[in-house]
Specification:
This protein is mostly helical. It is built from 8 helices and no strands. Helix 3 packs across helix 7, helix 5 packs antiparallel against helix 6 and helix 6 packs across helix 8.
Length: 204
């Protein structure tokens, strides 16, 4: 843990604070008023339709599937380090997010419409993990960074407009996704070494 950057520790601390709010004050005034205001403003408008489209386009399950396909492709072309980074990022982000949702059990703003835990936003976690992982392993970094910025704004907008999450759910999801990538950057080579020692396979 000694090589982890101070910024990562700051993200972890901020995430823990947001998690404490979700547990102790799940219906805090800030989240409740902001969510009620956003859902009321955009109710029955074209923005609601747009939000549904964005949430389907950037659906966490679709992005995780794409990461799985890319990770397997990289494995078959013997880019094992990149494959481990992509597959590890997808696996750990999805599994830990599901565990947190179950343990925290925060009720969504519109529980009659959306099921499952509200904290953290799975869409937000995976969108961040998806694009930051691609930025790390693919050369088209400038284009990906622009897509990443736009996607973060759009997914946050869509989840709030739909009433699927509170603002702190979305912010925590983005932070958590970034934390996963920070940790994978630190440890994926160690995972690769373990994999290589067990299988005898190495990057060409």
């Amino acid at each position: 843990m000694k090589n982890i950057k101070i910024l990562t520790y700051a993200k972890i601390i901020f995430f823990i604070l947001l998690m404490a709010i979700a547990i102790i004050y799940p219906k805090n005034l800030f989240d409740f008023i902001l969510t009620d205001m956003i859902t009321s403003i955009f109710k029955n408008s074209i923005f609601l339709t747009l939000a549904k489209f964005i949430s389907h386009l950037l659906h966490d399950k679709i992005l995780l599937l794409l990461m799985g396909i890319l990770g397997i492709f990289l494995f078959f072309i013997k880019e094992y380090k990149k494959s481990i980074f992509i597959l590890g990022s997808a696996f750990f982000s999805a599994s830990i997010t599901l565990i947190l949702k179950h343990i925290i059990g925060r009720v969504r703003p519109l529980p009659d419409v959306f099921s499952g835990g509200s904290f953290p936003s799975g869409h937000s976690v995976v969108v961040v993990v998806f694009f930051m992982a691609l930025i790390f392993v693919i050369n088209k970094k400038n284009l990906l960074k622009k897509l990443f910025t736009v996607s973060i704004i759009l997914i946050g907008f869509s989840r709030l407009v739909l009433g699927a999450h509170y603002f702190t759910d979305v912010l925590a999801g983005m932070l958590l996704g970034s934390i996963f990538i920070d940790l994978m950057k630190e440890y994926y080579l160690k995972l690769y070494t373990i994999f290589s020692n067990i299988t005898g396979l190495e990057d060409e």
